[in-house]
Design goal:
single chain, 203 residues, mainly beta, Neuraminidase, four-stranded antiparallel beta sheet, globular
């Protein structure tokens, strides 16, 4: 909804519960009950290993998290900390099992990644910093990232509409391209050894 995030339990016939938001657009509620908070056009959600529900609060330019006990906080983005990197209109979001969070943003070349630092805040909450990653993966015509995901080994995948390609960024910094299965001969690697086609890739 425009100012609310719902979850459906038990499949198509399951109960619909409100995770966050009142339904009215706005910007409020941090550190309080998530159901009483106000969001503005949330566009994507994912669940972290610790049970938090991460929400791309798109028109508020921030990433928010709902804790297992139902409280909401701003993880990164507008008004959290004036020193931090902007998070313009976040969209696709993914979380890695090591705590990294990848976010696609409007007008950003590549992705932004929130990385745990183990020290005081450097631009996100709980001792994390927001840094750009995979800048060469941006489509020449400026296509936005349509989806992101992490593989179990920690590699970051990103998809851009209309390209037929999936970008892969390994934990050691190597970058490559996975071609669509219908064009296996098109698989290339921008740096490092050749990468597999999408049909051959395994987690």
């Amino acid at each position: 909804a425009g100012g609310r995030v719902d979850v459906v339990a038990g499949g198509a016939g399951g109960r619909v519960d409100v995770v966050a938001g009142t339904g009215a657009p706005g910007t409020s509620g941090d550190h309080g009950p998530a159901r009483l908070a106000r969001l503005r056009r949330p566009s994507a959600v994912t669940v972290a290993a610790d049970g938090r529900i991460l929400i791309a609060d798109t028109d508020n330019d921030r990433l928010r998290a709902v804790s297992p006990d139902g409280h909401i906080t701003t993880v990164a983005g507008a008004a959290y900390d004036p020193r931090q990197r902007r998070l313009p209109r976040p969209g696709a979001v993914a979380v890695c099992n090591d705590g990294r969070i990848a976010v696609s943003c409007a007008g950003v070349a590549g992705l932004l990644e929130l990385r745990p630092t183990g020290r005081g805040s450097d631009g996100g909450s709980d001792g994390a910093e927001l840094v750009p990653v995979d800048p060469v993966a941006i489509d020449p015509v400026g296509a936005a990232v349509a989806g992101v995901a992490y593989l179990p080994r920690g590699a970051l995948l990103s998809v851009r509409p209309g390209t037929g390609l999936i970008r892969v960024l390994e934990p050691d910094g190597r970058q490559g391209t996975l071609a669509a299965a219908r064009r296996p001969e098109a698989a290339t690697s921008t740096t490092g050894p050749p990468v597999q086609t999408a049909a051959q890739a395994r987690p």
